[in-house]
Amino acid sequence: MSKKTEIFERYEQLINRPNSVSDFYNGVYQRFTYPVLTRDHVPPFWKYDFSAESCMERLGVNAVFNSGAVYLDGKYYLVARVEGNDRKSFFAVAESDRPTEGFRFWDYPVCLPDTCPEETNVYDMRLTKHADGWIYGVFCSESKETEKADLSAAAAQAGIVRTKDLKTWERLPNLVSRSKYQRNCVLHPELIDGKYAFYTRPQDDFIDAGSGGGVCLALCEDIMHPQVEEEILLSPRRYHTITESKNGAGATPIKTERGWIHIAHGVRNTAAGLRYVVYAFATDLNDPFKIIAEPGGYLIAPLGEERVGDVSNVVFTNGAVVNDEGKVYIYYGSSDTRTHVAETDLARLTEYVFCTPKDPLRSGDCVKQRCELIENNLKVLGDISNV
Predict the structure, then answer these.
(1) What burial letters (b/e) apply to 164-201, b meaning 16+ CB within 10 Å?
(2) Would you tell me how many other CB atoms lie within 10 Å of the CB of residue 318?
(3) How many other CB atoms are there within 10 angstroms of residue 269's CB atom?
(4) How many CB atoms are located within 10 Å of the residue 52 CB?
(5) pLDDT at 146
(6) What angle do CA 236, 240, 242 make, to 5 degrees?
(7) How does DSSP assign 107-118, residue by residue?
(8) What mean pLDDT, rounded, does the chain reach?
(9) What does the CA dihedral 268, 340, 128, 110 come to, rounded to 10 degrees?
């Protein structure tokens, strides 16, 4: 067997591998045995030089993670962040008719219109099917921070594109706000008071949120000249919680009968570095500036092999879809290395968001909260020796 044949056979085996439900259980969602995208899911002809007798790898891929997601005509599309061995990221579309397996990248990655000469890197695209008929992608546009001599100092802005077919992309100007830096921005799927609306995360520094208070909502008059003025705080950072260091919007909000469900990320600092988790909250259907539910703690945290990777102890989502049967698929990256999926449905997700108690913010009150749960459960269970 030639090396080329071996490479393609191994690739096809991976693409066609079934993905079974894991033994994880929490009643809210289920995890799966394998990631849905890894660096090995990238087509071999993106990496290897098949004109060379050795089939040598020329342009390696380090990681595939943090995928935007959209459900169209019965198919699932992930616009993944693909990071090359050279550390540069780019976007690529992977498609499957099954939400948890079988994702295959299109032959070519996305070639974004290059309208920002200073832009060095792009990543973490959120996809929004908007009521105006377009699919918008909002992503991080990174460039060198010219005001600092530090070679690692970077600046981040919210880049914006739109498309009808995920093939032809129109580049719009970057979002303008009062904040020096913007990351983790998401476009709301409907107009609010006749205006476009962005979930933003203003921050003072590329890494540290600084005085940035958390996830905000801001209105935009003209999507072709995207600019926001007042950014209203929705989901704040809080001391000794999962959002202490920073937090940011994740997937496009999911509309339910009870409210908009938001799936976001929270970050806290530890002796081992930053720890990223995924959490949820809800806003009012008629007043999206109003929080109506905040379940305490995280929804998804890194588990098992998800904890290990280029940036360990991280889960991060910027894509979720709801299919025609009401199933919800949350696509999340683990440790900046690979992409997983969690499966739930609108009923379970809604129950979790609206029936899970808030974080009472103090240990003593947390104990009282847990004791109430224990007391109620013991009444329901009766003699636990018979359970």
Answers:
(1) eebeebeebebbebebbbbbbbbbbbbeeeeebbbbbb
(2) 32
(3) 11
(4) 10
(5) 85
(6) 60
(7) SS--------TT
(8) 96
(9) 110
Over residues 118-171, the pLDDT tens digits come to 999 999 999 999 999 999 999 999 999 888 878 888 999 999 999 999 999 999
Q: CA-CA distance, 49 to 56, in Å (whole number)? A: 6
| Angle of CA points 162, 168, 172, to nearest 5° | 35
Q: How are the residues of the chain apportioned to helix, strand and coil, as percentages rounded to the nearest 5?
A: 15, 40, 45
Say how far residue 188 (Cα) sits from the centre of its chain: 15
Q: CA 218 to CA 195: how far, in whole Å?
A: 10
Please report where in the chains the tokens 């992608």 appear, as a residue.
Answer: 137
Determine the residue type at 231: E
Residues contacting residue 38 through CB under 8 Å, at least 6 positions apart: 64, 337, 338, 339
Contact assessment for residue 262 and residue 249, using Cβ atoms and an 8 Å cutoff: yes
Q: pLDDT (tens digit, 9 = 90+) per residue, 196-223?
A: 999 999 988 877 877 788 999 999 999 9
Structure tokens at 101: 């397996």
CA distance 251 to 79: 12
Q: How far is CA 75 from CA 97, 254, 356, in A?
A: 5, 18, 32
Q: Which residue shows structure tokens 């989502």?
A: 317
Collapsing DSSP to helix, strand or coil, 270 comes out as strand
For residue 387, CA distances in Å to 11, 23, 72, 212, 378 come to 47, 21, 45, 49, 11
- Give 75's pLDDT tier (boundaries 50, 70, 90): very high
SS3 287: coil
Residue with token string 């704040």: 236
Beta strand 135-144 pairing with 104-105: unpaired
**DSSP characters over 83-106:** EETTS-EEEEEEEESSTTS--EE-
Tokens at 232, concatenated: 């209203």
pLDDT of 149 reads 79
The sign of the dihedral angle between the CA atoms of 171, 278, 309, 77 is: negative
The answer to whether 36 and 103 are in contact (CB under 8 A) is yes
Q: In angstroms, rounded to a whole number, what is the distance separating the alpha carbons of residues 158 and 139?
A: 6
Is the per-residue pLDDT at 385 higher than 70? no
Q: What is the DSSP letter of 374?
A: H
pTM of the predicted protein model: 0.97
DSSP helix/strand/coil, 323: coil
